[in-house]
Amino acid sequence: MIANQVAGFLGIGAPPAPSFTSDYESIATVNVGAGSASTITFSSIPSTYKHLQVRLIGKDGRALNRDNMKMQFNSDTGANYAWHSASGDGSSASASGTAGDNFVSLYRISGNSSADNTFGAMIIDILDYANTSKYKTSRTLAGLDLNGSGEIYFQSGLWQNTSAISTITFTPGNTTNFLQYSHFALYGVK
Amino acid sequence: MATATYEAIATQTLVGSAATVTFSSIASTYTDLVLVASNGTTSGSVSTTLRVNGDSGSNYSTTSLEGNGSSATSQRQSNADKAYIVGFQAASYSSPYISIINFMNYANTSVYKTFLSRSSSNAASTYVNLWRSTSAITSIELTATGTNFSTGSTFTLYGIKAE
């Protein structure tokens, strides 16, 4: 069954206290099950941190060996995003970008034609996400290696909105779904 | 409820030069591992490679992006017996340097293991590596190819757990 997978900050329950102190906290996690997922959403994100970080591995159902992924904030689907990247494909380095887009485009996750067990990986830093005096900037380190092909990306993103980010939504770049074992984890940095 | 994470697992500081540094008996209780290396080498141009779980088979591949101040390049190595994390273009990379290596979902036995890393010295570089095994990573070995890590080099392994 295809479903949107949403992880919110529930603020309930009391897990055992860790044996160390840290200003880096796990907020929410989504593991895609056998039913796949058309979107991944982190909602009800508290404004109590300084920065956010998303760490993920992803694979979608596109009939190619790779795909991009869309990131949007607070359900904003307007042309309020810009993004730029420097990348390498194993033979040459290149750069790309755009302004006035409807999402931050993130490269790469693996597609369904890639070998089993291969997933793209990303580490996304969203800086000053709750600062209502600033547009929101993201920085992403991402890569996909398929042993014979692959790409490495260093990207920046901009959301031209001063609202605090309370929701982050990830969607496959093309009409498809995230596949089983894709894993998205949201962390807060104080 | 949010849970504190990003725990220091182990640190090694070299009191003498060494060709390899190994972290072993890594527990599978975290989601990702982060290895931070701040090191020099006993010779000039360098490259650093890694192996996991003692695997010396042709199970690694690397895609790199490097900038040395005058040009940006990208290289690939497939079916290799080690993963490169520093200095694919060894001649352009000198010590000391800092590397941050992320082992994503290192204990997930349903996926091959992907590593993301950044390194900085007189060249800036970033790498993605694939280890074609679904085994959980229990050991990490770093090697200073053709040289030694110098005295005072530090290597710290952190665990990040997603709740």
Structure description:
- The complex is a heterodimer of chains A (190) and B (163).
- Chain A is 0% helix and 53% strand.
- Chain A is an all-beta fold.
- Chain A has an eight-stranded antiparallel beta sheet with strand order 2-13-4-9-10-11-6-7, with no helix packed on it.
- Chain A starts with a strand and ends with a strand.
- Chain B is mainly beta.
- Chain B has no helices and 13 strands.
- In chain B, strands 2-13-4-9-10-11-6-7 form an eight-stranded antiparallel beta sheet, with no helix packed on it. A four-stranded antiparallel beta sheet of chain B has the order 3-12-5-8, with no helix packed on it.
- Chain B is globular.
- The mean pLDDT of chain B is 91.
- Chains A and B meet through strand 2, strand 6, strand 9, strand 10 and strand 11 of A and strand 1, strand 6, strand 7, strand 10 and strand 11 of B.
Quaternary: heterodimer
How much beta of chain A, percentage-wise? over 45%
- The main sheet of chain B orders its strands as 2-13-4-9-10-11-6-7
Average predicted local confidence, pLDDT of chain A: 91
One letter per element, helices H and strands E, the order of chain B comes to EEEEEEEEEEEEE
Beta-strand percent range of chain B? over 45%
